[in-house]
Amino acid sequence: MHHAHNDDATTDPREFWENRYSSAERIWSGRPNATLVGLVEDLPAGRSVDLGCGEGADVLWLASAGWEATGVDISATAVARARAAAEDQGLSEATHFEATDLAVWSPIEPFDLVTASFLQSPVELDRVEILRRASSLVAEGGRLCIISHAAPPPWSESARGHGPGDFPQPEEDLNSLNLGAEWTTEICEVRRREAEGPNGELATLLDSVVVTRRRG
Length: 216
Known about the structure:
The protein is α/β, with parallel strands linked by helices. The protein is built from 6 helices and 7 strands.
């Protein structure tokens, strides 16, 4: 799930994202998030979940790296594409996808890695509550990794008509979690990365990165 301009009159998250994914054969590139790869590639594999997984690129990368990888998204169309991609890549046994609302999703077992990448939406989304719930999904010794747009890409329509509150800084995300003493903050910073826009334009993007570890 990424920040996108809302050209649709709907304010229902499920309807908005289903319409968004249904509007094209593919929305995202199919490549894993480079910032996430850099954060996770040296961690020992375990059980992971990606919240707002979209078409599943990060989940598939995690599975290929040895993780028992789960992806959750509110759009049934996005999840269907993720499952199809997993089958095409021979990763069906290592992945599990669910189409459900993150505000009510309650897995039975905790995860060694919980990721939420660009969980920013132009329609109503209780992002803070979802991220707080995400922290409760982390097993002892596990990590919560939050990556957000710290500023909109210059080619995005989100660059117009939005205030700074739409693009939280890492300290804001960390403070909003209200984590207890059993948590250690490993990373809380803005990172730069080079990216190419839809028309080939190049730009330096700013990612807000928060990684916290539950001691155990």
